[in-house]
From TrEMBL:
Name this polypeptide is given: AMP-dependent synthetase/ligase domain-containing protein
InterPro entries per record: AMP-dep_synth/lig_dom (IPR000873), ANL_N_sf (IPR042099), ATP-dep_AMP-bd_enzyme (IPR050237)
Source organism, top-level taxon: Bacteria
Residues annotated as domain AMP-dependent synthetase/ligase: 60-151
Pfam families: AMP-binding
Disordered: annotated segments: 1-32
Entry coiled-coil feature ranges: none
Species the sequence originates in: Nocardiopsis kunsanensis
Length: 288
């Protein structure tokens, strides 16, 4: 389902695109170039928070690049579909962005939907790999038995699954990540059940990038914002919004049960409807 990537994605001073000007928008995928951007703005890097943990934006972006290179070394092809089984959380977004960074198509599964629907979505898209958080690794293994999935990568220490940390190991040949690899080949897949059967929809890179830009400009995202993405949020919109918020150095809180940082309030909310600004950005520079 796409061309082979060979031994790995290129990196270092000889990587393609190294002479391109520094960008204020993504290249290749929604997080392509994010790590470099945040390295240049170390005091405005933002964070992404879940119920139990907080990750600074630079670490999050760098992890995506490392994991993307790890997936490439494992033979992932451009256009491959990879399931993501986790609630709205940093892990769900980390997995989604990692798949897209390799030129793949992420299929985020909703843990609250029937198992048969999740298995049907995996089968209809010919997914062979699932990334799952620790609490849903067993469920992912059950889905593998009902579909053509051959491998589970888990964010926890789960028997029968490959630990996510293995993707972060250095490449034996020194190859790494190039954000322009797989340009326009990545995307997010949505699915729903209809009277006629399962319907899947691809939201390709150009669609996600248009959402990224529209949300950034319409909401006027700023480093002082606290952006909350709740359970049930529209998948492509939430995916684009989180990337846009991190790109601007804002704080992201992922999941309906995730509180904002102490002493701060949510300024942008993304739930079942369109994202809305609920308060102006706070004047709290350096609070990340």
């Amino acid at each position: 389902m796409g061309e082979r990537m060979g031994a790995g994605l290129s990196s270092g001073t000889d990587r393609p695109g190294r002479h391109l000007p520094r960008r204020d928008a993504p290249i290749g995928s929604l997080t392509g170039g994010l790590s470099e951007r945040l390295r240049l703005r170390p005091t405005r890097g933002g964070t992404i928070r879940g119920r139990d943990r907080r990750v600074d934006g630079l670490t999050f972006a760098a992890t995506i690049e490392q994991a993307a290179a790890g997936l490439s070394r494992r033979g992932m092809c451009l256009g491959d579909v990879v399931g993501v089984l986790a609630p709205v959380s940093p892990e769900r977004f980390l997995a989604t962005y990692t798949v897209m960074a390799v030129g793949g198509r992420a299929l985020p599964l909703c843990p609250s939907t029937p198992t048969e629907d999740q298995a049907a979505a995996l089968g209809a898209t010919d997914a062979r790999l699932v990334l799952a958080d620790a609490d849903h690794t067993e469920a992912a293994q059950e889905l593998a038995e009902r579909s053509r999935v051959r491998q589970i990568i888990s964010f926890g220490d789960s028997r029968g699954a490959t630990p996510f940390e293995e993707l972060l190991l250095p490449s034996p040949d020194g190859s790494g990540y190039n954000p322009s690899r797989g340009l326009f080949d990545n995307g997010v897949l949505g699915y729903e059940t209809t009277p006629e059967g399962l319907l899947t929809t691809l939201y390709p890179h150009n669609d996600l990038l248009a959402r990224f830009t529209d949300l950034r400009d319409h909401l006027g995202l700023a480093p002082e914002d606290v952006v909350a993405v709740e359970d049930g949020a529209d998948e492509p919109t939430g995916t684009a919004l989180v990337a846009s918020a991190l790109w601007m150095g804002a704080c992201v809180v992922a999941g309906s049960d995730c509180p904002p940082p102490e002493g701060r309030c949510v300024t942008v909310r993304c739930g079942r409807g369109a994202p809305v600004r609920v308060a102006p950005p706070e004047s709290s520079a350096g609070a990340f």
